[in-house]
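[RESIDUES AND BACKBONE]
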Amino acid sequence: MSHDHDTPSKLEIATHAILPLVTMLLIEMSLNHYFAPQNAIFVSPYLLTFFTVCLISFVVLWKGQICPGQKGRLTAILPWLLVFAVGNFLYSLAFTPKHSPALVAGFASVILPFIYWKLPKDEDIYRTVIYCGLGITAIGMVQYLLIYWYEVPSLFNWIRANNFAQILLGILLSGWYLMLAKSRLEGFLKLLVLLALVVLIINYVWVIFVLYQQLAIMPEMVIYPYFIFFGVQFVILMMLAWLLLGKQGKNIKNPTAWTVATFLAMLYPLTNIL
């Protein structure tokens, strides 16, 4: 019997799956504890990212032409999303000074990883469970987005929890997980990269628009953090371009490009404290 020595162990896969989730938790908790205004309402700057990953994952499991091995590897990774979901929900519930308007979205996020954990084998039940997962994801996303239109509507909060930056990170993290699962969906990965490029451009335009509005209100505000932000976004752009290089999509699974782009995209909330 031959063994593939390049196949990562379960511990290695779990470590790589958890690493970005723990990083996001640490960033959001640190920012809220040390830099948020006193008694400010806490809303996770990564919850929309979480739902974006879930949405893309459900689409892959529903429509993706993947073999049982690929599906098994992917469904071994996705339940680890529970680390972020539970950590964020408990922090929002117990360690923030005011009520969290994202409790419904937070509760939805806790439910979703359990769906990945034990998907049924019966085809009809499988599709029904996927539809339920998509529905819960949609509810969570809508409730989260409504927070910034009704609960805390302001330019400061719209840039503080940049929805486009979150969606970009969600797309990149989804691709990173597919790469980790050794998915053979090269065409879908290319589609994710192209979608990430579109969202990246929209994010550039959005941040420039909000920055212009803020400067009109506060001409004395410091803007150098945004130059750092744009520089980081440019590096992400280069990583996405790198993934598209090569004939017949041979570079689309480049782990360095996916890792650099994903973890740089994760740093977007730090713009608010520089």
Remarks:
- Residues 1-5 have pLDDT under 50 and may be disordered.
- The radius of gyration is 19 Å.
